[in-house]
Specification:
heterodimer, A: 307 residues, alpha+beta, 6-stranded antiparallel beta barrel, 6-stranded antiparallel barrel, disordered N terminus, B: 165 residues, mainly alpha, Arp2/3 complex 21 kDa subunit ARPC3, 0% strand
Chain lengths: 307, 165
């Protein structure tokens, strides 16, 4: 090829690539067409993820090999103690649950949904200040769906944002773009918690100067918005600053879940759709139901309880 | 003609191999204190191939590598591909001049190129997603510049053993 001609084609090639890139950007931002190719490619580069997690896995194996027997004995004892303690707590929980159901029935309130729990292993953590997310080893194949709530044994971690065939990415509650409706355990005050971009702080922006809130208060997920089930611990208030002449207080909180330390997370999925449809009967319809015969209601309620 | 064909296949395999290693290094967990200094492995690999085989590694291959990187990071498609294409194109244009520079000068120029790549992608992420360039964003540039000589030597060995010229 002649030299000037070649230079020309170089520029035109570059131009074509640029146009293609911009087209991709727009397409990815506006449509969902690229989900499929992304999933295919994600499977193709899965070996990279496996290879990258190898050092950690090998390290874990070695620590297990080296760790002395007394340690294991100690860990075993601790776990057994914890097991019995939890077992005992569950016993009382059963009766409390029944009591709660009875009370809700008395109040004519809808039943609380039970969540199904799936265990998932952490694959990758990205804590760059503008994108707090983790990659977990469960995906489409395991029934994960977008928007699913993710917790660990202590509290809420985040929500599923992207589902790929074998793994999915979870946005942490500390991501600066994340907001989560919560309720203060002590007072029942409802508010919203925002991420800050730091793993150990959350902010609670829109609280009036006269709100009843103090350091040490526990924030539970309120269940509003429908993403997160209610009653899971989210954060503890660490700082309450009242600034003169400002409309709102400056409140910061610390996440309860071990966001950057846990190896396993739990994915909560809502109960089976057939049953949950029954339960989602709006309260407005309740008076109508009273017209139904008692027999029918008796047939309905065991179904609800079983769920 | 035959020789040229074998060399293309070799080039393809070698690029795949080096990209695979770079991808793995990109997602491998690092301790907190070196986190921000993690070099842009993929960008360095693209720079190397665009520098040494400019007539065959250009914007297209850069774009493909960038897209794979986006799948790995689970981010918006197109941004890193665009950045990598620009990076490959710039290095292509400057490849003759770059080759005659000394090690130190090369390090500096590679730093500037990777810096432009980061600037462009940072801007685009700012446009598309919630992203602002902070001080820490540039730390990886230092890591990239410091690792460049080692990557250059390693890939030079790889290229020689694959008989690509």
């Amino acid at each position: 090829m002649a030299n000037p001609f070649r230079k020309n084609s170089e520029w035109s090639q570059f131009g074509v690539v640029c146009i293609l890139a911009v087209a991709l950007m727009v397409m990815d931002a506006r449509t969902k067409w690229l989900e499929m190719p992304r999933n295919v490619l994600a499977v193709a580069i899965a070996p990279v993820q496996i290879l990258a997690s190898l050092p950690t896995a090998i390290g874990r194996v070695f620590t297990n090999l080296i760790s002395a027997e007394p340690d294991i004995k100690l860990a075993y004892d601790n776990l057994r103690n914890e097991y019995f303690q939890l077992k005992a707590e569950t016993l009382s929980l059963r009766s409390l649950q029944e009591e709660n159901e009875d009370l809700r029935a008395l109040l004519d309130a809808s039943q609380r949904l039970k969540e199904k729990i799936t265990l998932a292993e952490l694959i990758n953590v990205s804590i760059d200040p503008y994108n707090h997310s983790i990659l977990v080893g469960r995906g489409l194949r395991h029934g994960v769906y977008g928007g699913q709530a993710v917790i660990d044994d202590q509290g809420v971690i985040g929500q599923v944002t992207e589902v790929m065939p074998f793994n999915s990415s979870v946005l942490l509650i500390t991501d600066p773009g994340h907001a989560l409706p919560v309720q203060i355990q002590r007072t029942g005050l409802r508010t919203v918690v925002y991420g800050t971009g730091s793993v150990s702080t959350l902010r609670v922006p829109f609280l009036n100067q006269n709100s009843d809130i103090e350091p040490g208060d526990v924030l539970l997920s309120s269940g509003l918005g429908g993403r997160f089930p209610n009653g899971y611990p989210v954060a503890i208030i660490t700082d309450v600053d009242v600034i003169q002449d400002e409309a709102f207080m400056e409140v910061s909180a610390k996440p309860i879940a071990k966001l950057d330390r846990s190896n396993h997370v739990l994915l909560l999925s809502r109960g089976e759709p057939s049953n949950s449809n029954d339960l989602r009967v709006p309260n407005v319809l309740r008076p109508l139901e009273q017209n139904l015969s008692n027999e029918e209601r008796d047939q309905d309620s065991p179904l609800d309880n079983r769920e | 003609m035959m020789h040229r064909k074998a060399s293309s296949l070799n080039l393809f395999l070698v690029i795949c191999l080096s990209s695979f290693i770079a991808l793995t290094l990109t997602v491998i967990p690092l301790p907190q204190w070196v986190f921000y200094f993690r070099p842009d492995w993929m960008a360095l690999v693209v720079v190397y191939w665009a520098l040494t085989v400019p007539d065959r590694v250009g914007p297209w291959i850069g774009f493909a590598i960038g897209t794979v990187l986006e799948v790995l990071f689970v981010r918006n498609f197109g941004v890193l591909g665009f950045g990598m294409a620009i990076l490959a194109f710039m290095v292509n244009r400057a490849s003759l001049q770059l080759r005659v520079l000394s090690f130190w000068q090369q390090m500096l120029v590679v730093g500037i190129f990777v810096g432009i790549f980061k600037l462009v992608t940072g801007w685009l992420y700012g446009l598309i997603a919630d992203f602002t360039i902070t001080g820490e964003y540039w730390y990886s540039l230092l890591g990239s510049m410091l690792t460049w000589p080692f990557i250059f030597i390693l890939l030079q060995e790889l290229r020689r053993s694959a008989r690509i010229n």
